[in-house]
Amino acid sequence: MTDDGTNRKMGGKPDAETGRIVLVDPRSLLAHDFGPHHPFKIFRLGLTYELISAYGLADLPEVRVLAPREASEAEAICFHEEGYLEALRLCDSGMWTYEALRHGLGTGDNPTFPGIYDWAMSVAGASIDCAAEIADGRADRAFNMTGGLHHAMPDRASGFCHVNDAVLAIHRLLDAGKRVAYVDLDAHHGDGVERAFYGRDDVLTVSVHQSGFTIFPGSGFVEDVGTGAGAGFAVNVPLLPGAGDAAYALAMDEVVLPALEAFAPDVLATQLGSDAIEGDVVANLQLSLRRFEACVRQFDRLRLPWLAFGGGGYDVGNVVRAWTMAWAILVGRMLPDETPSSWIPQAGAHGIAVPSLRGPDKPTPTTDHAMESLRASIEQLRSSIFPILEAEGERHR
């Protein structure tokens, strides 16, 4: 073990080139605030970055740190409507109208606050820049923990998301001629990203989430597989509450990884929302931190160019640990389980106490009902989408 508390290179690239892995530094965005009673806490981003730094993983020679920059309207209109962006800009200046409410702005879920346009477009700009680094061959991997705001729609804010940075980033990869597989582990269905590419066959969207019968946004059912040219290229794995670790292991092994192998993408994009983890106040999927880490390791083993986003997560202790572990995997490190003593007071200032990075060393339980439902979904997907994906993958190999 080195002086910074990390183990060097466990199963990763042994001599990574300087600057080939990109990390977005979120600290310039921490002045923004959804409000004291809103579950989306922007300070979690700074706390995560500080934990990454305390482990010594922000200043590695292979790491290049980027600051967020505001996306342009020209970049955003590949998905978002100009009228919506104008409404968002007016809210940024403090002007609110009934027209803003038509765009989902000023609601309990999607409040307006000073700097809202800067916040939303800076998150988007950071994701676009990460995609550009990969698309243009300057980076192999990139992580924007501020991103993954997957619910935003062309003409409205939704589910705490104002601008869909993941969609804009994927468009940047498509502009470079890349075929993209997007996998969403957030507890909520990645509806905005799915909608953007629902009729296309050059983007595979896979969402593993709590069933829309039990949680927002009420979509993402196993029957939803795409339309037109995109039929078979949208994959939804709805899980019942109480899914636990065994269900996630089965979903990864039987759906997610085979779908990725069949599709054979040029670039992997992952939304690593941590609200599926046990203890989250919004969802009830009961995923353990250790199984979350195992899922991210499965992505790592694919050895694809990899663009990772953050996403949801409303237990801040879970968020900072999950995304720190994800970053460690992106840079090929195995972290000790004890959190650095230098970071503990920073966490304590926010009322966060997490002495263990991974939590209990035992899997969370899975209900019989949740497993039965998942197995039925897997059988349906095997007959509906896998023949299409396998044929498409063969065409591109």
What attributes does this structure have?
alpha/beta, Arginase, Chain A, eight-stranded parallel β-sheet, 13 helices
Give a brief description:
By secondary structure, the protein is of the alpha/beta class. The protein has 13 helices and 8 strands. Helix 8 packs across helix 13.
Describe the overall structure.
With 397 residues, the chain is α/β, with parallel strands linked by helices. The chain has a single domain, classed as Arginase, Chain A (3-Layer(aba) Sandwich). Helix content is 38%, strand content 10%. It is built from 13 helices and eight strands. The chain has helices spanning 43-54, 73-76, 82-92, 98-102, 116-135, 165-175, 191-197, 244-263, 289-300, 316-330, 344-348, 368-384, 386-396; strands spanning 21-24, 63-66, 141-144, 180-184, 203-210, 234-239, 267-271, 306-309. Strands 2-1-3-8-7-4-5-6 form an eight-stranded parallel β-sheet, sandwiched between helices. α1 (43-54) links the parallel β1 (21-24) and β2 (63-66). It is globular and about 50 Å long. The termini are far apart.
